Q: What sequence folds into this?
């Protein structure tokens, strides 16, 4: 579907920034709104103090000195610089700690740095994302320095968050923006906007999928946003297409079964496998296994009938009793499948609950988010939904930028015009 966006009707130039603060990775998108011109949504693809260009994401891993002062973000520091620093990871899930599986809690930083609160962590990271956006615009937009100077007094900030985050959690984000000196206490009331990750992914999916599926009035559209920490499911009924307007027809769902839960499950398996090994099972081996699983096998796994391998050591490391050969742990495909199964089950059951009273012929399901790029997730969720006569689609471009780009799309188009009362079910 192609959405025809109208020219910006505001009285003066404005910058819109969208921060997708994820459990493991975060993204930034922006749009420069010019009066009487159609807005163009762009992504920051180089983050401050890194040499990487072309990446839509920055790691949501922060390092602090032992006295609690902020030192930097992962990828901005060399490995030898981080040895004596305090690493903070998975901090986004701290407000939801009680809902996490036990082995996932074990992957979370147990305590925050000396004298630091969760708001302090958010503020430090928001400042980093803001400075990255500023530097990127200055470096890559024509006359970037002059442009930024003209835009800085007129910035709207969009913050995405998991489905169901309201009240105190949104207040935490507002306070963090003020503490980061991005906006003042007065400015955040009128210039900070919130969007659920489901709403943002919806905007991205319907404008980036050339599936031939028409969004006729009355059609149901479901969006699965599969991220590092959470999986969000949002559900809409199309009211009109020109302009696009939808109504939410089911309460948004949020499951703590994202990609990092799969990684945590794999690590728990490795810990058990190496438990009685004298040679393997130390923290260095487990850390290497976890990193290589996370950035390798988890992203590429697509066939449960084949043996899979995860590197963690050297070619000299061999132990048949542990299924280790050449520094690689050998895994049956069916075992790897089990790491993904809780996530797949949560998604399929969530969709089943939402579509209990909908017509499959008039229902479209989209899969987005960084973890949504997994071929196994797409294959297996699609196969199980097909049994319910539901078709699973995926955006044609990078799903890992769906929330950041979709947040601005939602801001510009504001397609959601109605929501169900609390506790409502599909109709």
A:
């Amino acid at each position: 579907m192609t959405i025809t966006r109208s020219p910006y009707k505001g009285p003066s130039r404005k910058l819109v920034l969208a921060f997708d603060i994820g459990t493991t990775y975060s993204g930034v998108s922006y749009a420069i709104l010019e009066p009487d011109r159609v807005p163009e949504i762009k992504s920051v693809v180089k983050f401050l103090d890194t040499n990487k260009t072309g990446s839509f994401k920055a790691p949501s891993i922060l390092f602090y000195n032992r006295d609690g002062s902020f030192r930097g973000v992962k990828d901005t520091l060399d490995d030898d610089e981080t040895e004596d620093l305090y690493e903070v990871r998975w901090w986004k899930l701290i407000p939801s700690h009680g809902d996490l599986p036990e082995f996932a809690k074990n992957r979370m930083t147990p305590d925050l740095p000396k004298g630091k609160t969760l708001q302090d962590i958010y503020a430090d990271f928001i400042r980093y994302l803001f400075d990255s956006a500023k530097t990127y615009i200055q470096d890559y937009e024509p006359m970037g320095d002059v442009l930024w100077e003209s835009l800085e007094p007129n910035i709207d900030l969009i913050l995405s968050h998991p489905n169901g985050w309201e009240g105190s959690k949104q207040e935490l984000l507002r306070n963090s923006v003020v503490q980061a000196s991005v906006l003042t206490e007065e400015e955040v009331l009128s210039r900070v906007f919130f969007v659920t990750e489901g709403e943002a992914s919806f905007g991205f999916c319907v404008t980036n999928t050339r599936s031939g599926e028409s969004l006729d009035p009355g059609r149901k559209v479901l969006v699965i946003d599969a991220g590092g920490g959470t999986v969000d499911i949002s559900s809409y009924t199309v009211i009109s297409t020109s302009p696009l307007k939808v109504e939410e027809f089911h309460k948004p769902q949020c499951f703590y079964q994202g990609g990092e839960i799969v990684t945590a499950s794999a690590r728990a398996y490795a810990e058990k496998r190496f438990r009685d090994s004298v040679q393997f099972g130390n923290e260095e081996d487990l850390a290497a296994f976890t990193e290589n699983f996370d950035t390798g096998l988890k992203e590429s796994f697509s066939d449960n009938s084949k043996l899979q391998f995860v590197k963690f050591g050297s070619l000299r490391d061999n132990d048949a009793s542990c299924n280790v050969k050449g520094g690689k742990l050998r895994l049956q495909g069916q075992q790897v499948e089990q790491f993904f199964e809780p996530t797949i089950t949560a998604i399929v059951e969530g969709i089943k609950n939402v579509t209990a009273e909908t017509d499959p012929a008039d229902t479209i399901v989209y899969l987005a988010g960084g973890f949504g790029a997994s071929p196994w997730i797409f294959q297996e969720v699609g196969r199980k939904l097909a049994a319910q006569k539901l078709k699973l689609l995926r955006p044609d471009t990078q799903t890992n930028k769906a929330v950041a780009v979709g947040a601005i799309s939602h801001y510009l188009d504001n397609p959601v015009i109605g929501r169900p009362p609390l506790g409502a079910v599909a109709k």
User: Anything to note?
Assistant: Residues 118-140 form the longest helix (23 residues). The chain has eleven helices and 19 strands.
